């Protein structure tokens, strides 16, 4: 009697995509992020006007068919500036979190695997940085480095690093007790191979989820730094600096604050919704 064919199990990637597809909020977040990224990447071709071009005949004009988001205090098209400002905010979020991941994850992995005095030293430094509010530390570092978008990215990246150090360390400590790590150690694998070949692939899902959520926090931090004059410098557009300018014209031209604020709100909300869905999709208990 012939045995029935065994259906191959779905791959982890397919399972994760299936779970993600069942989360309407996560799909909404992914769609908004896709639109924001496309607008930022293709800003030179999508933006209807030069974001830096002024016109004294168009000062603080309300939204119209010619200028969908209106104009600002020197007659610049607000829609074009919001589109170009997305480049600064998204770049700051991605670059800052990349810095935090590249620095924090290796430190956390080595700290959790080696232990001893190195683990104690990294732990105390991490605790000290986490004891300071995230935004306060970012402002202090940005003020020390000097006002510019690049320095703001570095400041936000350094500030977010302890989060990934602690996450990676906790994941490594949990993985060290697993049978597959003990088996890899028993057959003579060196510590570096165990970390890179066996532990790292298994801690990537929580790191990815944390990175997605951290980008949202980094975008808010960049907007705050730009609002305070420590991020993107005028006349280059940034959502935070646009809000700083708009605060002087809230009664005469409220659209100057509404549209940059709405861009920040939608982008941060989208990252959080997508991050929550990604966390469910990559949950090992699923």
What descriptors fit this protein?
mainly alpha, about 290 residues, elongated, single chain, disordered N terminus
Order of helices and strands: HHHHHHHHHHH
Beta-strand segment tally: 0
Radius of gyration: 23 Å
Overall outline: elongated
* First-residue to last-residue Cα separation: 36 Å
Largest sheet: none
The whole-number mean of residue pLDDT values reads 87
Number of helices: 11
Oligomer description: single chain
Which parts are unreliable, with pLDDT below 50 for 5 consecutive residues or more?
1-9
Please bin the fraction of helical residues.
over 70%
What does this structure look like?
- With 286 residues, the chain is mostly helical.
- Helix content is 71%, strand content 0%.
- Helix 5 packs across helix 7 (149-176) and helix 10 runs antiparallel to helix 11 (255-281).
- It is elongated, with a radius of gyration of 23 Å.
């Amino acid at each position: 009697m012939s045995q029935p064919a065994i259906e191959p199990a779905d791959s982890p990637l397919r399972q994760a995509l299936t779970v993600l597809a069942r989360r309407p909020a996560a799909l909404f977040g992914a769609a908004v992020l896709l639109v924001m990224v496309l607008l930022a990447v293709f800003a030179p071709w999508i933006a209807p006007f030069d974001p830096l071009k002024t016109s004294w005949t168009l000062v603080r004009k309300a939204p119209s068919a010619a200028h969908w988001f209106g104009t600002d205090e020197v007659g610049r098209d607000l829609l074009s500036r919001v589109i170009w400002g997305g480049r600064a905010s998204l770049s700051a979020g991605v670059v800052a979190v990349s810095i935090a991941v590249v620095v924090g994850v290796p430190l956390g992995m080595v700290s959790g695997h080696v232990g001893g005095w190195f683990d104690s030293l990294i732990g105390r430094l991490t605790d000290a940085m986490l004891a300071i509010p995230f935004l306060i530390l970012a402002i202090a570092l940005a003020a020390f480095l000097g006002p510019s978008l690049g320095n703001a990215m570095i400041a936000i990246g350094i500030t977010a690093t302890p989060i990934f150090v602690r996450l990676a360390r906790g994941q490594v400590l949990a993985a060290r007790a697993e049978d597959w790590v003990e088996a890899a150690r028993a057959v003579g694998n060196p510590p570096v191979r165990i970390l890179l070949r066996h532990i790292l692939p298994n801690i990537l899902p929580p790191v990815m989820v944390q990175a997605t959520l951290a980008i949202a926090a980094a975008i808010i931090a960049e907007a705050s730094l730009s609002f305070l004059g420590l991020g993107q410098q005028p006349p280059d557009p940034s959502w935070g600096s646009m809000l700083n300018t708009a605060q002087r014209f809230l009664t005469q031209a409220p659209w100057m604050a509404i549209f940059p604020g709405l861009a920040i709100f939608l982008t941060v909300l989208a990252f959080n919704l997508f991050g929550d869905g990604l966390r469910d999709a990559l949950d090992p208990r699923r």
